Amino acid sequence: MNRPRAAVVGDPIAHSLSPELFAEFSEAMGRPLHYRRLRLLSVDLDAVLGNVREASPPWIGWSVTIPHKVSILSRLDDLAASAKEAGAVNVIHFKDGRAIGHNTDGEGFLASLEAAKALPRGKKILLLGAGGAARGIGCAMRGAGAGEITVLNRTEEKAKKLAKELGGRGGRLCDSAVLEAAADADLIVNATSLGMGGSGSPVPERVKFRKEAVACDLVYRPALTPFLKAARRGGARTIGGFGMLVAQAAAAWSIWFGEGVPRAVLDSIRSDFEGRSS
Ligand code: NAP
Largest CB tally within 10 Å, which of 5, 238, 245, 254? Predict the structure, then answer.
C-alpha cells in the first residue's frame, strides 16, 4: 500500500522532533504515514514544491519551519484565512495538485497557554522575534484580546512592520530595550531561534520580571533553554515549547486527514516527550 508522504521542511532541520511526533499520531490513529525531515535550501523551494505537487505516491503535506514560513507564502496556490492573517505558513496541504498554506502556530501557541492557565487576554506582551513563528503567535494573541504588544527583533524593520500589523510598538532587540520592556510585561515570549541546541538567549542574564509574569519559549530542544533559565532566575513562571509543538502538529493532522487527535493521546505524547528531554 502507498502511504501518503509528508515532511518537515527547513534549514537547519536536524533538531526537529516532528517526525517522532507524527509517528506517534500515525500509530495512535491507525493511519499509515511516511513522514520525514527534509532539509530544504531557500534556492530550491520552487523546484521542490513543483515536483511535490505532482508526485506519486502523493504527498499529503509539509510542516514548514525556519526559515521558510514567510517566503513560501507567495509560492502557494491558495492560503487559508489563518495564513493570510498571520502572513506566514507553517502547514501546507497538498490536494488535487494544489498546495494550500495554513497557519497552526497561533492555535498551537494559544492551546499551550490555555493548558498553563496563562491566556493573553488583557495582558501586556513582550514578543521577542519577528520571523514566521512570531507572526503566527502575534496574530493569535491579538485575536485573543491581548493588551499592549511590544515586538523586539534583531532586524528592526521587521519588528516595526509586525508591531504595526498587531497595533503595537516595535524596536531593535538589544539588552537595554529588553530590560526596559521586560520590567512591566505580563507575558514574555521567545520567538527567535536563539536557544536552539542550548546556546544563545534573547534576554540578558540579569533580566528581572514582574512577580506574576509568565515567560514562554517556542524553542523546545533543550526543554530548559537559556531564556527559560534566565526567566526563572528573574522571577517568572515558565512554559516550554513542547505544548505548542504537539498542539500545532495536531492541528496540521486534522487539516490533512479531517480528523482530530484525541486530547488523551496528545497529553500522553506531550508528557512522554517532556520526560525524555528533561
Ligand atoms: P524564522 O522565520 O527564521 O525567524 C527567526 C527569528 O529569530 C527572527 O526573528 C530572527 O531575527 C531571529 N534570530 C535568528 N538568529 C538570531 C540571532 N543570532 N540574534 C537575534 N535574533 C535572531 O524562524 P521561525 O520559524 O519564526 O522559528 C523561530 C523559532 O521558533 C525556531 O527556534 C523554531 O524552532 C521555533 N518554533 C517552535 C515551535 C513550537 O511548536 N514549539 C513552532 C514554531 C517555531 P531576524 O528577523 O533579525 O533574522
Answer: 245
DSSP string, 16-57: --HHHHHHHHHHHHT---EEEEEE--GGGHHHHHHHHHH-SS
DSSP 75: G
Q: How many C-alpha atoms does 138 have within 13 Å on its Cβ side?
A: 35
Nearest CA to ligand 1 atom 36: 218
Higher pLDDT, 70 or 54: 70
Closest ligand 1 atom to 65 CA: 25
Ligand 1 pocket test: pick from 16, 66, 152 the residue with the most ligand atoms within 8 Å of its Cβ.
66
- Catalytic site positions: 69
Place of cell 542550548: 198
Closest atom of ligand 1 to CA, residue 64: 25
Calculate what percentage of the chain has a pLDDT beyond 70.
Answer: 99
List, for residues 152-171, the tens digit of each pLDDT value: 999 999 999 999 999 999 99
Q: Which residues contact 275 (CB under 8 A, 6 or more apart)?
A: none
For the segment 139-158, the average pLDDT, to the nearest whole number, is 98
This prediction's pTM: 0.96
Q: Does the Cβ of 251 fall within 6 Å of ligand 1?
A: no
The residue-averaged pLDDT of 173-192 equals: 97
> 219 in ligand 1 pocket by Cβ < 6 Å?
yes
CB atoms within 10 A of CB 98: 12
Give the contacts of 254 (CB within 8 A, at least 6 positions apart): 260, 261
